[in-house]
């Protein structure tokens, strides 16, 4: 695959000495969807702002389609569409004119068919003559996406794009994202909705305290780091874990009517057979047994715990 965005040792230090980015290095391939996860203040927005030329880097290099973001800014920026967190729109301008104007800012010739296509895809065509102030928060978010796509970028940054958007609108947006990916557009999104990253991303990056902790193929990440839980449901509830099972690192379920055992899927021995034998030997009667694969959210939380330790 072709690398469309190359980031090397990117650093950003503010005047008060705060290091927002600490040597981030990352290659992003053309046509992929990368989900960037991290807590508030982790550096996600600073990374996007720096690549897009909104924030000046303190060090390192970034190239977009071979164009350096500092020495060849105009060419690099023309390849990027940005959907920011903030709903920064002219309140009394119409939807249609707002999107048309954004295309003109990049020096692209007027193309009413392209603008019409974007507005239809985002369910904005029937609102084209409405002033921005007449729109709901979700519709304003859609206008931001339309603006970002108006000049036909090859890379689209989505910074918390579904914040404040209802479930139906969110699903529509991700359908649009899938269509853009099919057209070869590279998409980098930050999100707090981890289930969305799990559903649509090709790769997942985790950033904390200005450092990129990992970037991994989503399925590989879950296979390598994922754990499973086995929940043994009991006929009679417990008040505490029996002494005979104290060395098994068990947790008691809500209400005391189950025991939860977490095991590593990569381990040669999971210990499940011994667990069930020990439970039976302790005089407990099983009612049911269920397993659960850890989610991307579980992995994300575990990584942040390790970083804080």
TrEMBL record:
Residue stretches making up the ABC transporter domain: 5-234
TM ranges: none
SMART domains registered for this protein in UniProt: AAA (SM00382)
CDD domains: ABC_DR_subfamily_A
Source taxon at top rank: Bacteria
Pfam families linked to this entry: ABC_tran
GO MF: ATP binding; ATP hydrolysis activity
Protein name per Swiss-Prot or TrEMBL: ABC-2 type transport system ATP-binding protein
Alphabetic keyword roster: ATP-binding, Nucleotide-binding, Transport
Tagged with keyword NAD: no
């Amino acid at each position: 695959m072709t690398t469309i965005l190359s980031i090397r040792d990117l650093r950003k230090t503010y005047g008060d000495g705060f290091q927002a980015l600490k040597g981030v290095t990352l290659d992003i391939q053309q046509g992929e969807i990368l989900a960037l996860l991290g807590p508030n203040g982790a550096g996600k927005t600073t990374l996007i702002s720096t690549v897009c030329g909104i924030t000046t880097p303190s060090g390192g290099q970034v190239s977009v389609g071979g164009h350096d973001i500092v020495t060849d800014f105009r060419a690099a920026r023309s390849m990027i569409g940005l959907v920011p967190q903030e709903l920064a729109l002219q309140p009394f301008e119409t939807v249609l004119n707002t999107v048309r104007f954004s295309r003109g800012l990049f020096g692209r010739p007027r193309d009413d068919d392209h603008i019409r296509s974007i507005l239809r895809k985002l369910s904005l065509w029937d609102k084209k003559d409405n002033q921005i102030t007449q729109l709901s928060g979700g519709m304003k978010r859609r206008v931001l996406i339309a603006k970002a796509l108006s000049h036909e970028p090859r890379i689209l940054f989505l910074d918390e794009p579904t914040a404040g958007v209802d479930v139906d609108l969110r699903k529509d947006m991700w359908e649009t994202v899938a269509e853009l990916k099919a057209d070869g557009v590279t998409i980098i999104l930050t999100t707090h909705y981890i289930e969305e990253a799990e559903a649509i991303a090709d790769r997942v990056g985790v950033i904390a305290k200005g450092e990129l902790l990992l970037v991994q193929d989503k399925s590989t990440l879950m296979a390598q780091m994922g754990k499973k839980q086995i929940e043994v449901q009991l006929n009679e509830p417990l008040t505490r874990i029996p002494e005979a099972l104290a060395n098994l690192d068990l947790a008691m379920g809500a209400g005391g009517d189950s025991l939860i055992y977490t095991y590593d899927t990569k381990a040669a021995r999971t210990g499940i057979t011994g667990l069930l034998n020990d439970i039976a030997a302790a005089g407990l009667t099983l009612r049911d047994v269920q397993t659960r694969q850890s989610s991307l959210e579980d992995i994300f939380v575990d990584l942040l715990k390790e970083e804080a330790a």
